[in-house]
Amino acid sequence: MSDDTVVVWDESLLAYDMGDHPLDPVRVELTIALARELGILNRPGVRMVKPEPADDALLTRVHAPAYLAAVRNAPRDPLFAGYGLGTSDNPVFEGMHESSALIAGATVAAAEAVWRGDARRAVNVAGGLHHAMSARASGFCVYNDPAVAIARLLDLGAERIAYVDVDVHHGDGVQDIFWNDPRVLTVSVHETPLALFPGTGFPDETGGPGAQGTAVNMPLPPGVDDSGWQRAFHAIVPSVLRAFRPQILVSQCGADGHRLDPLADLNLTVDGQRATYLAMRALADELCDGRWVATGGGGYALVEVVPRAWSHLLAVATGDPIDPATLTPPAWRDLVASRSLGREVPLRMTDDADPSYEPWQPTGEPNAVDRAIAATRKTVFPLLGLDPHDPRD
């Protein structure tokens, strides 16, 4: 296996543009620009790969043919409605099929490179459209690129694939698509569905018949900070991955759990997000011989958060992590200013936060985070042969 890292990128990925909408492609443009100015994309062993669109054969591994036809036809029909399209969340836009298929193709290219041994790790920051269902657009997502890539890995012979989703919103589309497939473990750490879209992701969602225990959900109460989030992540994710023994790890790394994100209610920092990326890389190294495919996802603090968070992700995937105290390059700040976005430009790659945490223990006076941890462990751990009360599991 090559030790290279593939970064799938081309400016044409920015065509996934819903117009005046929270999911602004400028966040991806600014991420790549920041990573380039920091020298991350020029590191030895980093290969930039231009994506090709996923064809219908790939897309219909996940999506219904009638849905693909609707996505193609919707921009030509001013009265189109249906399949979740034409809403404020999922407006119809020109080139919708083509740009969505390109994002799916980019994540598939990342997955293929890792599975075939051409790279140890691969990243598509434009991907992570995890809410799309088999026959319905949802949550700003038209085609579910992580699910398409996972289906491709299954076709290539993968027998155990772990999908870990750290977006603030539940990874409902990927969970739904693989609900009955015991070969795919879906793990989602997110804000409670009692407070946030999409209203799913409770602990008792554990997988369909024959696949029970392969859906794992860790919903967290609003207001959780880095220490609580890290405590929950480490109380659940390493244990279930070790029990499942995946051959490859696929991650959705939405940055919308940050305290500045306008669409959610958690209080994470870029320092905490960086710590999570390091933890996922360590788990891939421990369990999957390093095989890790990472995608972007949500994130709506377009300047203040997403470019820094995903530049940290790219740094972790390509080698040494970036020192949090690193200054953002002046050329990048100038680029942000030229976009006239009216946002405060961060001067450093840190929020000056300490992402350390106290490991979970089944004793003491439980707080809201510990109650959530206990609920998930009690529900799903026995299905995986784990002891919900043993902190070593």
UniProtKB/TrEMBL annotation:
<comment type="similarity">
    <text>Belongs to the histone deacetylase family.</text>
</comment>
<dbReference type="InterPro" id="IPR003085">
    <property type="entry name" value="AcuC"/>
</dbReference>
<comment type="pathway">
    <text>Ketone degradation; acetoin degradation.</text>
</comment>
<dbReference type="InterPro" id="IPR000286">
    <property type="entry name" value="HDACs"/>
</dbReference>
<dbReference type="InterPro" id="IPR023696">
    <property type="entry name" value="Ureohydrolase_dom_sf"/>
</dbReference>
<dbReference type="InterPro" id="IPR023801">
    <property type="entry name" value="His_deacetylse_dom"/>
</dbReference>
<feature type="domain" description="Histone deacetylase">
    <location>
        <begin position="21"/>
        <end position="315"/>
    </location>
</feature>
<keyword id="KW-0006">Acetoin catabolism</keyword>
<protein>
    <recommendedName>
        <fullName>Acetoin utilization protein AcuC</fullName>
    </recommendedName>
</protein>
<dbReference type="InterPro" id="IPR037138">
    <property type="entry name" value="His_deacetylse_dom_sf"/>
</dbReference>
<dbReference type="Pfam" id="PF00850">
    <property type="entry name" value="Hist_deacetyl"/>
</dbReference>
